[in-house]
């Protein structure tokens, strides 16, 4: 930390943000002409007190205008985030520095980060403002900004605003400086226990048998028998020794992969769902909360499977925060790519449900199991499954609201809240 004195200030209110004082009228460039005219009159009438006052004000005005013009030149701010990716509710920090690359010292300097609903600074403040007193010539100062990710999204810190002027604050100006930092905020992880895959599923083969392809000569372990285990997997010696049926676990020779399809249509906000503005706002908040819970559970599923060595792929009908379609991802070992897409995702779409299901038909690898997450299982989902079931390795539906078609797919469709583990209550 440098010798410059640092003070953190309270962020401006919404009214103050749009009325930032830049300079006194007395020290505007136009006022100099008035002072010159006043000095000329004083000289004409040989009025010495007025000559002294107008001369002083004119010199002070020139100094203030020049100081204002030069104050923010030669400044070099730098921001380095401690991480480029965090989960919601996690804390992070920024290593900040500022160099004054000129001989003119600054009596005071304010550094401001614009407010955002995605992050908070210090004591839960939306806008971060810090003031330094006496930044000397060619001096470098360093400090740390503590932050917390409040909700999922992509926080783009493209600029930092610097504000400075003379010591009396008669004249001041502000200027944005580019820093170009991006923070991906992932959905908050929940404690979940996602379903296990069918023991008979053979990865890497097409059709109903698709899934796990195992080497029968490489036994990785033994476990209790589960319904659906093939007879060739039975370990008769272990069963006789333990008194319970035991099955061999074979070493897979094909990488285990999973595709996750995310249908966001049920979470779209209708702009005029209610005539009452308060009811409309309440409705929009409920939709947003349901969508965030939806993505949190999906991210938690993916995190659990990733720890099991399963590669995760991704496909959706959603748009990103810039209004662009989100690209599909083939299964890969980097969960970061999948979570980045979730951070960008918004509950907005361009394609119809029919087009999204058609996209699944052509972009979904046939030998990879599919988990399709949706708000509710619709007629279109059901018809798509009936047409494609013989070509797919394995399909499971996860929904938030039950429907007639989720009941028809009762073995394959489950509410995703069913897999969320509630925190244990403290006994009294």
TrEMBL record:
<feature type="transmembrane region" description="Helical">
    <location>
        <begin position="33"/>
        <end position="60"/>
    </location>
</feature>
<protein>
    <submittedName>
        <fullName>DUF58 domain-containing protein</fullName>
    </submittedName>
</protein>
<keyword id="KW-0472">Membrane</keyword>
<keyword id="KW-0812">Transmembrane</keyword>
<keyword id="KW-1133">Transmembrane helix</keyword>
């Amino acid at each position: 930390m440098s010798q410059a004195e640092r003070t953190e200030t309270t962020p401006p209110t919404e009214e103050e943000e749009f009325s930032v004082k830049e300079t006194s009228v007395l020290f505007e460039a136009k006022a100099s002409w008035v002072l010159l005219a006043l000095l000329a009159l004083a000289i004409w009438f040989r009025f010495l007190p007025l000559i002294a006052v107008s001369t002083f004000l004119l010199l002070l005005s020139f100094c203030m205008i020049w100081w204002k013009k030069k104050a923010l030149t030669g400044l070099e701010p730098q921001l380095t985030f401690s991480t480029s990716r965090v989960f919601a509710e996690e804390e992070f920090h920024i290593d900040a520095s500022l160099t004054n690359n000129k001989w003119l010292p600054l009596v005071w300097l304010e550094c401001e980060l614009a407010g955002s609903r995605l992050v908070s600074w210090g004591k839960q403040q939306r806008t971060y403002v810090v003031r330094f007193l006496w930044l000397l010539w060619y001096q470098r100062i360093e400090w740390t900004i503590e932050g917390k990710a409040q909700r999922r999204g992509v926080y783009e810190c493209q600029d930092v605003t610097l504000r400075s002027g003379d010591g009396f604050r008669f004249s001041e100006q502000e200027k944005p400086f580019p820093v170009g930092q991006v923070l991906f905020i992932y959905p908050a992880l929940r404690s979940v226990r996602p379903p296990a895959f069918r023991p008979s599923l053979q990865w890497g083969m097409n059709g109903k048998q698709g899934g796990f392809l195992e080497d029968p000569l490489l036994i990785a372990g033994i476990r209790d028998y589960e319904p659906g285990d093939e007879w060739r997997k039975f370990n008769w010696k272990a069963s006789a020794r333990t008194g319970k049926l035991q099955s061999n676990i074979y070493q897979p020779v094909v990488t285990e992969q999973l595709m996750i399809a995310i249908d966001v249509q049920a979470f779209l906000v209708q702009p005029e769902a209610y005539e009452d503005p308060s009811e409309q706002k309440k409705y929009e908040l409920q939709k947003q909360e349901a969508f965030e819970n939806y993505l949190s559970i999906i991210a938690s599923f993916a995190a659990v499977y990733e720890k099991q060595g399963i590669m995760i792929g991704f496909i959706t009908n959603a748009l990103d925060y810039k209004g662009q379609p989100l690209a599909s991802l083939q299964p890969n070992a980097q969960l970061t790519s999948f979570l980045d897409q979730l951070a960008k995702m918004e509950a907005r779409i361009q394609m119809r449900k029919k087009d999204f299901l058609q996209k699944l038909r052509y972009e979904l690898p046939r030998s990879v199991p599919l988990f399709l997450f949706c708000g509710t299982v619709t007629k279109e989902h059901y018809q798509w499954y009936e047409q494609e079931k013989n070509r797919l390795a394995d399909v499971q539906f996860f929904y938030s609201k039950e429907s007639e078609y989720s009941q028809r797919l009762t073995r394959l469709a489950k509410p995703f809240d069913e897999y969320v583990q509630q925190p244990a209550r403290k006994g009294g």
